[in-house]
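Students often ask why we bother encoding 3D structure as a string. The short answer is that it lets us treat folding as translation between two languages. Here is a chain of 390 residues written in the first language.
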Amino acid sequence: MRTQVAIIGAGPAGLLLGQLLSRAGIDNVILERRSLDYVLSRIRAGVLEQGMVDLLHEAGVSDRLEREGLVHDGFSLAYHGALHRIDLKGLTGGRTVTVYGQTEVTRDLVEARHALDRPTIYEAQDVALHDIDGTSPRLTFTKDGKAHELTCDFIAGCDGYHGISRASLPETALQIFERVYPFGWLGLLVDRPPASHELVYAGHERGFALCSMRSAERSRYYIQVPLEERVEDWSDEAFFDELRQRLPAEVAEAVVTGPSIEKSIAPLRSFVAEPLRFGRLFLAGDAAHIVPPTGAKGLNLAASDVRYLFDALREHYRDHSDAGLDSYSARALARVWKAERFSWWMTNLLHRFPERDGFDGRIQETEFAYLTQSRAACTALAENYVGLPY
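And here it is in the second language, the structure alphabet:
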């Protein structure tokens, strides 16, 4: 088999890159080790920056997003039982975020790829990368027990934190930056209307809590828990009881309980691997970086990587210039580190750390007080939350 761009991973990053490339007339093949049903069942993030919404429009996959996405002009911070609203639209000159689940983004991209009749090879096993330092890289894999080879011009590693792309590189080729946080998020998904029409981030002595949603009828709630906690130790009733204790009274009273349709614990970490280019291999999305979910940046960072990588590949094939490819890693990482900083800041602002002392507590309280009193501080928060420019 032969293609121009081989994409490893059929998550949102790989599918979005494939969609943009296909619409630009650039041939591509996607390899995915999981089944299509598994890919479509993954429940992930749901807050899209303005830039990602615009990119989905450009990719021609925004029809359902326009109909079903929930545009949010702001969100609320809660501390000591008081709510403070961050007016995203007013503070950023009209920019907003859109609540639309990653699962729905993936489904839209899968359907769009099928409509273009572009190849995606699901359940591709034993994927291996070869000759990425040369001019004709290739991938080998097995499908249904048979060996295959795919040659290409470039490889896009969009296969996530545990994928083969980054793992194929020698340790000496990478510089790793990482911070693992001493807690996780216990998340619960329920088919009930959300407690608020906008997200509520709560800092509390008992720990962080978040009231979010996937639609007007489906709510997503989170509470901070120690890493050693187990999902099976939390009944739905216990979860909702703990959630309410961490929320202001008016929000707690609005929480509508119901049987969970999904419940899981996600550990929090900050992670960046540099650089993002190795010969003909380019890393994008979670293959290259992880952020704590506090700032809603993970999926959006994958989209900005795709923006830069697509522009560079299009420039290569259309204009016969490699300037974009040569600058991809530096351009992407500049935005990645800004998002890492913001996610780290939000995490420190809202969570209770086990080792926190009296000084840390006073700093956290003062940070909240400053946000309630300073338009400049709120503007900085809003600008980062809606997404920095590409």
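Translate back mentally: The chain has a mean pLDDT of 96. Keep this in mind for the problem set.
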